[in-house]
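[audit] Reproducing an earlier prediction to check determinism. Same input, same settings, fresh worker. If the tokens differ from the archived copy the diff job will pick it up downstream; this log only records the rerun itself.
[audit] input (345 residues):
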Amino acid sequence: MNTLYRKYRPQKFEEIVGQDHIITVLQNALKQGRVAHGYLFTGPRGTGKTTTARILARELNCEGLDLIEVDAASNRGIDEIRDLRENIRISTGENAWRVFILDEAHMLTTIASNALLKSLEEPPPRTVFILITTEQDKIIPTIKSRLQILPFKSIALNDIITRLEQIVKKEKVKVDSKVIKAIAINASGGMRDAESNLTKILSTGKDNIVLEDIRHILGIIDEHLVIKYIELLFVGDKSKIFNFIKNLEDKGIQEKIFLKSFLEYWRKLILINVNPQIASELSLQLTKEDLAIIIKQAKKASSQILIKTAQIFLQNFNDSEKYPEQMMALEIATLQCLDLFKKTT
């Protein structure tokens, strides 16, 4: 099976998901004939930066494409940038545009960056440089000052879910909604990771894919297990919560992955506890139903207790490989927190 993120890579601005603020800027620039000579596309991995750069190049070259892409991670030195500068000087005709895409731009050496700066200071006519990075702070200030910075953002959970559902429908495979949601959550706002993981599970060849089929493939868990565990933690029933942990082990769920998922979820819970207004931002990472649950849970303890709990689980997460038994780190963290909650009641 072809990699889905390549198969369904957007070919038009309208197909880019979750970056409307970027697309509006670029479309207006094209309509008004005000395309900048240089852009810095910055933001999390897998959010459409390179794809958007290629679409902009196509929009500038409707009848022909003069596009040069350079991966700065493997072409980061002064010699490669000198070769690029020589290429820049080559004329392509009076009406032709040239687009240079420099991916992983933060990987350039300081000397190479300064060499590139000379081309950015005096760019040839009808030439566009697009630098792409996940680490804007590593781009030297003199380069950033000569570029229009366009910040890409993490893609909303619901947008990723919708996109994956569309792909599954086109691929004519039945995938349980819990699987789609788990993949979307695991992608952490990156569409490319979501589509790559969907490729993995469709490669199993099954006609009807459920969560249990793909748990080991992707190393993920159903977030509702974390929610259920937290509810039991707040209730404080040792018998029920240790039966729950035993069931996790019976299902083959890896302790480290569960602890990591717990900490990621608990962070959101703390944020809402200390600043309820942040719920609107977190709505991009959660479904409406899960957001309602986490808002309710955030009210069940003080911020001090929630922070202390995070510290306990983080310590046991870091120490989990030192314990001789699977689930022992989770069991110890559970006991410590049950005692902690008991002291506050």
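[audit] rerun output stored. Observation attached for the diff report: The CA atoms of residues 126 and 252 lie 58 Å apart.
[audit] end
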